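thread from #wetlab-drylab

HS: before we spend reagent money on co-crystallization trials with zinc ion, can we at least see a predicted complex? here's what I'd submit
DV: go for it
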Amino acid sequence: MKLYRIKKSNIDRNGRGLYAIKDIKEGTRIINYVGKIITKKKTEECEKFDNSKPIYLFNLNSRYDLDGDVSWNTARLINHSCLNNCDYEGKGLKLWVIAVRDIKKGEELTCDYGFSYNSDYKQFPCKCGSKNCVGFIVREGSRWRINKKLKKIQRASR
Ligand SMILES: [Zn+2]
C-alpha cells in the first residue's frame, strides 16, 4: 500500500517532495530507497561524489555504497528538514525510509540528511522553517559548528 504521493514541495519551492496520504505510525517503512550499488573503490574514483551529489550516497557496508541519484529512486525527492519526521534504515543491501515519529496525513516527509561542514555548505540554504533550523543543509553531526559560528556573528553585530 502506497503511503505517499509526489507533490510540489513547501520546503523546496522549486522542487517536489513526498507527502503522506494517510496517517503513518512511528517505525513504519514508507518507501524503499533504491539506486545503483557501487563499490567503494568506484565512489572514491568518481568525481561526481566529490561535491555536488554527496547526499544521495549511502554507505551500505565495508565494500559497497548506494548511489541514490537515479531517476527511478522516488525517495530521493524527500527534502531535508532540521526537524525531520523520517530517517533512513539499512538492512543488508536494502535501504528504507522509515517514520521516526507519527506522521499525519498531508505532512511532507523529511529526512535529516545534509552536507558535511567541510563541503561548501553555504551553497545549500535550508528553508525547512523549523525552530532548530541552522539555515543550511548540514549533517546533524556538523551542525554545532555552524551554530557556534552564528553565535559569534550575532555577538559581533551587537
Ligand atoms: Zn532547516
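DV: Residues 81-82, 126, 128, 130, 133 surround zinc ion (CB under 6 Å).
HS: ok that's useful, forwarding to the group
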